[in-house]
């Protein structure tokens, strides 16, 4: 019959107290004897179960209870019995560990010891190194691997170039100081720097080709998709005469051999060429207009710098304005606004800039001008040139707000993230 554990005060000390009793209140020699008898009984019951099921014969108790070379010298059954006895006798945790019960039956102690066999180290070892690096080198904003430049704050948190510019643009729109989304430290183009080590590490990580699903280093993936991949999407060489076929590159040769467009008649080809000529005329019209403007007698240009300001409304709005500038002996001012003075432009992903040209000088007669804005000499913003026309007078000296021909919202964020917007203004005066 199992005895209950007695309090320490009743026992009268620790393991070395009176009577040589341990923490459980039972003499040590009796406890060791009880453990040996329980182990032998468990082995005998296991042997009977194996015999009933047709298994190998059970080993004798003395040979099974003796670990070491003596047990190893026996047959396979004796070795198995020795291993079982060792697990039963030594499977329990030491007495001082949490959760160990020295008086518990051997089977219970065996189950408790087996629960900790599979730990987090085995699960972590099965994860690939690339997958662990993805979570370490990813951008803290979009949680994706950077594709180009990588910036870091003063505490080392990583941001891709697109998210970094977007954070600076949002802070400019909200009239706040841009902060790191992780540690809330201040970030700016002067405080943050590029992390070249992370950029090189990311370029060597494997990435999957979107066409053939093979793994390539990120530094070689773009070249593979454009030039080497046999499954990349390509077009027929007779596209210029109307062939709409698109398909994988390895099927291009077969299609071109069967394509019917080379056998078209001259009348059919003339219709296609007429459509191509119309498209080309529209593209060349802008360049021809610029060349004709360059032949004018009065031409002026200057570098303009838009500076950010805030309106005096209850809800302030961001706008840009240039200092007064002199072109063609006249004084001018440029103004710009974001999303046509939308109430909360920071909540919109699509962002645009529109500008207005104002004549500040007094003139004696109406002044007809053509003007356009281009990117400045130190900016990498992509702007499509568009020519605007307006007739200035003393009564009508302001143009309407016209959209700045920026390629997309990413380029607009680059302008908003900068401290100032630097562009180049050309004005052509039309003589009558």
From TrEMBL:
Compositionally biased region (Gly residues): 11-25
Keywords: Cytoplasm, Metal-binding, Zinc, Zinc-finger
Location of region: Disordered: 1-123
Highest taxon above the source species: Eukaryota
Record flagged with keyword Metal-binding: yes
Subunit structure: Interacts with LGALS3.
Name of the protein described by the UniProt record: Zinc finger TRAF-type-containing protein 1
Organism: Mycteria americana
